[in-house]
Amino acid sequence: MGGGDAEKARVIQTMLFVSGLTTLLHSFFGTRLPVIAAASYAYIIPITSIISSSRFTHYIDPFERFVRTMRSIQGALIVAGCFQVLVCFFGVWRNIARFLSPLSIAPLATFAGLGLYQIGFPLLARCVEVGLPGLILLVLVTQYLPRCLKMKQGGIWDGSRCDRYGIMICIPLAWLLALLLTSSGVYNHKPQTTQISCRTDRNGLISNTPWIYLPYPFQWGSPTFHFTDSFAMMAASFVTLFESTGLFYASARYGSATPIPPSVISRGTGWLGVGVLLNGMLGGVSGITTSTENVGLLAMTKIGSRRVIQISATFMLFFSIFGKFGAFFASIPLPIMASVYCIVLCFVSSAGLSFLQFCNLNSFNTKFILGFSFFMAISIPQYFREYYNGGWRSDHHSSWFEDVIRVIFMSHTTVAGMIAIVLDCTLSRENDEAKKDCGLKWWEKFRLYNLDVRNDEFYGLPCCLNKFFPSH
């Protein structure tokens, strides 16, 4: 985009600020599940398309090109945020979510975790001497150490606490190893890609981040709006609806809540759309969705507390305003974080598979829907990835329509969800036996908010707001 380390620091601080603010709003007025709002990978394709647009190539000054590009990204994000707010708050997504059954939720939630396999071991392997010890240590501390301790519950070295504090133990140790390797000069004469992945001082964020910085609206100037950019960004917003829906079901299971009603799903994704709108107004570079890593961390630590998430959101706001502290944590090499992803993303995937307990896996109809949606969710995105990132289209600039197709069909979660919903609705609703096989008979009592009296405990809005925003 043309920006330097100072602009990079401001953008990261802005995104962190919006993520913290959106998390707070979502915890009070959204689904109220213990989830965190974070930047979404689904927006990478349209953002990259905007950056490589020919209308910015004639800007010689790197800073001017950065500002012009950022304004265009902001305009597209504002349109995408308005689109998501309208779709969700006017009940369109609620009516779509009512078609879900345990059989269609299983692929949707499973690929919310499996679909991010590229940020697991492939990212870890960029600096294997740091990432692999972190992964092995994390598995040992969270899975094997509790079995070795064999202490009584409530002791100081209670084995049940290892999974809760495992990340807090393992990340600093792996981070210290990376710091020692960096300080000893191991990476001084290594290739640039290795230094970027392994060094703790690689990105210049700490030195270029201001001590105090408060993001403000339109800090890069007035946003510009382009028809083609907006459509590609709305496609990314559509993809995040599927991702967030699958993650809501996974977090409800790990948080010991009732299955989330469709009206609450629509309410939660609507507030995430507000986060996309805020990122467009304040100058962030990506849209907002539910954090997949946080849902896996919820399963790993077994802490399903809404209050903990709200405290975490205040820390996000603190680190975004007092930038030096946030930049210090941003110096953690990404391969160390990838070792954590390898653990937490597996919990997200297993949450989706757990919905199969309500289905009849002896039914060939169930096996076909499940197997076909899983296979195509892997195969279709792989085709588009090869077609555009190595095939004969890789050297050609794609049109806005091609960007829309790429965003939708390169998302494993979206492909799995769409195929599973269509097959489930057309093949598993014929008679009572078919509905029983897909788990719909058991699911009926969770399709409306007022069918379970426990829903108010988990999803009811504070300050008697339910009567103003009924969840029907």
From TrEMBL:
A Gene Ontology cellular-component term: membrane
Membrane topology of the entry: Multi-pass membrane protein
Signal peptide range in chain numbering: none
Subcellular location as annotated: Membrane
Tagged with keyword Transmembrane: yes
Any Pfam family the entry gives: Xan_ur_permease
This protein's name: Nucleobase-ascorbate transporter 10
Species of origin: Brassica campestris (Field mustard)
